[in-house]
Sequence to fold (135 residues):
Amino acid sequence: MGKNYVDIENDRGETLRYRKHVNGRGLIAHGAKVHASALVEAGAYVEPGAEVAAGVRIRRGAWIEPHAVIGPDVEIAELAHVGSGAAIGAGAKIGIRTTVGAHARVAGGALIGDNEIVADGERVATDRRGLRLAA
Fold:
């Protein structure tokens, strides 16, 4: 049986230790909190201080930055990026290659499509079809 962690050096020369999540084998940094029922696929990263709730699905290549909060039953598609301090509400869906900026807020149940950008600090809610609602 191989080791259950990997050490990665960041841009500042610091070494961060990541463990492989039991459900999906994605990499979870020391200090991140990820519920055991969440799926974090191989190739996805969850950074220190991030919180991931029950039933979340984080697909390959997705990146959750430090101190982001991901609510229950959220789906984050392949190659999506959730910025530092962002919050994603329960049941929201984040599309492929979509970026949610630092400290942005995505309302529960929101549908953010593929290749979209939610700006830093922006607050977003959508209807059932994914059309953005006025804040």
User: Anything to note?
Assistant: The longest strand covers residues 15-20.
